[in-house]
UniProtKB/TrEMBL annotation:
Keyword flag Transit peptide: no
CDD domains xrefs: REX1_like
Ranges in a coiled coil: none
Protein name: Exonuclease nef-sp
Gene Ontology MF annotations: exonuclease activity; nucleic acid binding
UniProt GO cellular component terms: nucleus
Record carries keyword Nuclease: yes
InterPro entries assigned to the protein according to its UniProt record, in alphabetical order: REX1-like_exo, REXO1/3/4-like, Ribonucl_H, RNaseH-like_sf, RNaseH_sf
Keywords: Exonuclease, Hydrolase, Nuclease
Length: 587
């Protein structure tokens, strides 16, 4: 053909052919709409492997566990903060592969040996190495917060909290790790005798000692310039002054709704000063359509926002005028509030960090529980949602208590060797027991949220929602997963078979083991990367295993890969997610 000649025009479709093509495309679209779909929310985007490495904010193993639980049980279990999983009810199977002794760096530096894996997974998220909290990957995954349903059942099955804990199906945060048990048998607080000698002007610790470092701000997912936050974010001041121990503190709390694009829309904000006086309160009209008012938690209803004209920009200006240039912002997991406010601030005290009941950074206690335990204050009633004025005041009370009693007070991370410095074991268990069994004459105790205070076995929860499971585990992990895997018939009515546990030390034999187990709701595999082989053979075997597991997974299945990191706790892991869908030719 003459190179200068124009290309031949494609033959026009007849009206009948066009109609048939249009019908096929419509049918294909309808089919694909029934397939599950994973989407990162604003809180998860900074952890994405697509983000620049030096600006990532890794997620925790608890975040990843939430993804697994959501894929198996749907939205009934967790309020997910970093992802959305659409059409979760149509998930045919969840396949989880957990691998020890491999890090994100191993994959990034050896991409040529993960060719099959990279064809399956387009993206993933960086994950903090659990060893940074002194936990093995298996221990971190083996436990899950209890559900409200289990809390109700405990009241029917057991006569006391002690009986429930002794039975071994429920675990207190105090017993989560071995080091947490040290020093907990003392019936009185170490600091009781110190309090007599304290005055307001003679604090045991200072404000600046409680502030988060720049590294903590980044790893804690706080809005930080240059770390995955959009240009709309503003600084609370144009210019700051050096912070000192005399700098004023302001506790801030926000309530927000979930917008249609997956972002959070600010709906209400309150600020309290360190004299426990309210200094600011406003309702806000989100700038995007609202998908979910989250009334159960936020207390926000369409009626409350009716007629509200105040915008996020106006709220930002109000706060910029209110705060002095050396102000310290106080909050409980304040990152979420600052994200909703779209503000940067350098001086932060986070009560969820300075008070730690578990000894694990990623397992933070709720403000409601801390306020009840340390301040004997009842907040966040179940039938009314949260009040930001009340929450801000409670947070400031906790920080003032910390300043009075010292850095070690209420922080198990700082007391792993020297013993617990805080309320007695009897008081802690008493508060938990009252929330379940009553006995204090206060109905408000029954509303206490215990999800981060009492734990249950991960596989106990899976069975409690009638999902079948096969667990293939390396012998080294079996002793962590197996105990109490059989479900308690009094606590749960389970219609599925018990978890099937198979020990398998050889990675290349895992796929073969699964050939007869294709009908399980959850396929959970925990293995370890073999010792380094010549020509990176150990990485090639892992790549092949991932491909084999994906191939045998049915359509609409969700595959989750977890690399836990290395023995060196500074080497982080990763999590990759993919929903299996047909190709265009297969529809």
């Amino acid at each position: 053909m003459d190179q200068g000649a124009p290309p031949e025009k494609r033959a026009r479709l007849s009206e009948e052919e066009y109609g048939a093509l249009k019908a096929r495309l419509k049918a294909r679209k309808k089919i694909l709409q029934t397939y599950p779909r994973f989407k990162l929310l604003m809180a998860g985007i900074p952890a994405s492997l697509a983000s620049p490495k030096d600006s990532r904010a890794p997620l925790t193993i608890k975040d990843v566990q939430d993804l697994i639980l959501c894929s198996v049980a749907g939205e009934a279990r967790h309020l997910n903060r970093w992802f959305l999983l659409f059409q979760a009810q149509h998930i045919s199977q969840t396949t989880v592969l957990v691998v020890d002794n491999i890090s994100l760096t191993d994959m990034e530096e050896n991409e040529e040996h993960f060719s099959k894996t990279l064809e399956i997974f387009e993206d993933g998220v960086e994950m903090v190495n659990p060893k940074s909290d002194g936990l093995s990957l298996s221990v971190a995954l083996a436990y899950s917060p209890i559900t409200n349903a289990l809390k109700g059942r405990m009241r029917q099955v057991y006569k006391s909290l002690k009986e429930a804990l002794d039975d071994g199906h429920v675990y207190s945060v105090m017993d989560f790790t071995d080091q947490n048990c040290q020093g907990m048998e003392k019936s009185t607080s170490i600091v009781e005798n110190k309090k007599e000698n304290l005055t307001v002007n003679n604090k045991v610790c200072t404000k600046t000692q409680l502030m988060l470092s720049a590294l903590q701000l980044i790893t804690g997912h706080y809005p930080f310039p240059g770390h995955g936050r959009p240009q709309e974010f503003r600084f609370t001041k144009d210019k700051y002054e050096p912070v000192t121990d005399n700098s004023p503190m302001f506790a801030i709390d926000c309530e927000w709704c979930l917008c249609i694009d997956g972002s959070t829309g600010l709906a209400r904000v309150a600020i309290v000063n360190e004299n426990l006086q309210p200094v600011y309160h406003a309702y806000v009209l989100p700038d995007r359509p609202i998908r979910d008012y989250s009334t159960k938690w936020s207390g926000i209803t369409p009626q409350l926002l009716k007629g509200v004209q105040k915008t996020l920009r106006q709220i930002q200006e109000d706060i910029r005028k209110l705060l002095p240039p050396d102000a310290i912002l106080v909050g409980h997991s304040l990152r979420g509030d600052l994200i909703a406010l779209q503000l940067f601030h350098p001086y932060i005290i986070d009560s969820s960090v300075i008070f730690n009941m578990t000894g694990c950074r990623f397992m933070k206690s709720k403000l409601q529980f801390l306020s009840k335990l340390f301040c004997n204050r009842d907040i966040q009633p179940a039938n009314k949602g949260h009040d930001p004025n009340e929450d801000a005041l409670s947070t400031m009370e906790l920080v003032l208590l910390k300043l009075k009693n010292g850095l070690d007070y209420g922080d198990r991370l700082r007391n792993s060797v020297g013993g617990w410095n805080g309320p007695s074991r009897e008081k802690i268990l008493g508060v938990i027991s009252s929330a379940i069994f009553g006995g204090r004459g206060s109905r408000s105790d029954e509303n206490l949220d215990l999800q981060d205070v009492l734990l249950m076995k991960f596989f106990t929860f899976i069975q409690s929602v009638d999902k079948s499971t096969i667990l293939i585990t390396h012998p080294a992990h079996d002793k962590i997963y197996r105990p109490k895997t059989p479900i308690h018939s009094g606590l749960f009515t389970c219609k599925t078979a018990p978890v099937k546990i198979v020990q398998q030390a050889e990675m290349q034999s895992i796929a073969t083991t699964l050939e007869s187990e294709s009908n399980k709701n959850l396929v959970f595999v925990h293995t370890a990367l073999a010792k380094e082989e010549e020509n990176k053979g150990h990485l090639k075997k892992l790549d092949q295993l991932i491909a084999d597991l994906y191939k045998r997974m049915p359509m609409r299945g969700v595959m989750i890969i977890i690399f836990g990191g290395k023995e060196n706790s500074l080497e982080n892991g990763l999590c990759m997610i993919n929903v299996k869908k047909p190709t265009k030719d297969e529809i």
